[in-house]
Amino acid sequence: MEKLYDAGKARAIGVSNFSSKKLGDLLAVAPVPPAVVQVECHPGWQQTKLHNFCQSTGVHVTAYSPLGSPGTSWMNGNVLKEPVIISIAEKLGKTPAEVALRWNIQMGHSVLPKSTNEERIKQTLDVYDCSIPDDFLAKFSEIKQARLLKGNFIVNPQSVYKTHEELWDGEL
Question: Which positions fall inside the NADP-dependent oxidoreductase domain (predicted)?
Fold first, then answer.
């Protein structure tokens, strides 16, 4: 990627699913630092340590699964049913999905919501007509944190990563 970047064929380099440690290790040696890290990030997995690290190093965070992947059988997470989000949505006259997306945007992240439902796709644009007040933002710290994508497919005795702790550098 650095060769493509140097040749002008790539405008930036990005990484995916890096912990703060892995990103720090990369930044220490990469001639071309990554511009973005794409990670699971939503109100139920806020990635506070990584968010703060990225802010201090100028790496942008892009959130995949910003709604916690409701309706999927393989991740079993739905932040849209989180009471804090429902309460804030009711007070703001928004849907829980709009509040979850707006939270990420106010944190400075870009979001990659996915839906096949036309109405929900349109709702993702309604996150720019309001903001979440600071007192409501503080309520997000009450949400229990849980990584939905644990990486079970890569953790095993024959892998470089023998445990989830090794894979995520303790950022579970």
Answer: 1-143
Rg (CA), the chain: 17
Q: With contact defined as beta carbons under 8 Å apart, do 35 and 60 qualify? A: yes
CA distance 93 to 29: 47
DSSP type of residue 143: S
Three-state secondary structure of 104-124: HHHCCCEEECCCCCHHHHHHH
Alpha carbon 33 to its chain centroid, in Å, reads 20
Residues 6+ apart with CB under 8 A from 91: 136
What's the CA gap between 103 and 95, in Å, rounded?
Answer: 12
Task: Kindly list the strands in the beta sheet with 14-16, ordered across the sheet, starting from the edge strand earlier in the chain.
Answer: 14-16, 36-40, 60-64, 110-112
- How confident is the model over 112-157, as pLDDT tens digits? 887 777 877 777 777 888 899 999 999 999 998 887 777 778 888 8
**85 and 43 in contact (C-beta within 8 Å)?**
yes
